[in-house]
Description:
By secondary structure, this protein is of the alpha/beta class. It is 37% helix and 22% strand.
Amino acid sequence: MTVPAGAVELAGDLTMPARAEAVVVFAHGSGSSRQSPRNRAVAAALAKAALATLLVDLLTADEEATDRATGALRFDVALLAERLVAAVDWLGERPEATSLPVGLFGASTGAGAALVAAAARPQRVGATVSRGGRPDLAGDALRRVEAPTLLIVGGRDEPVIDLNRKALEALGKRARLEIVDGATHLFEEPGALGEVARLAGDWFLTHLTRGNRP
């Protein structure tokens, strides 16, 4: 399906399990797309836990071609966040999703965009998760994020661990940092991505589903 975002339309894949009580929007990282095998694996695990998922390309096909050649757009967090907010607003107009709480799952640079979007839609976004993310790219928006936020980083991804620890201080008491032992930036090690999916699923179920929301 297509998601309107201002003057452009974005390609997206919406999965709605039976009796879903929340929906999670995925923001991919630099140089990736909604076809990211890592994000799709996490999305599949969330669907098994009765969480709906929306994987959306935050750049159009032409923009992705430009980005592959120049790298000019992958760090444009303001643009990516604007597109992510459009996706959240679009879900609010879908009959099957309008009443569902929304979570955001951001990977790499997409995590920065997810946090900016969460700050922009505090009444709509109920939880965020970052996988190997760059929350520092959210800048001043970090201190405006009200949604409970889980930062997941690989234990061998030392530069990103440091960035996430600094972001944790800005996010405050509603945020938590989880380090997956032995994992590198892409969580390619056996069992690492499964642990990401478990942590993310528990976080979203705790903070989004009707019986557990604060």
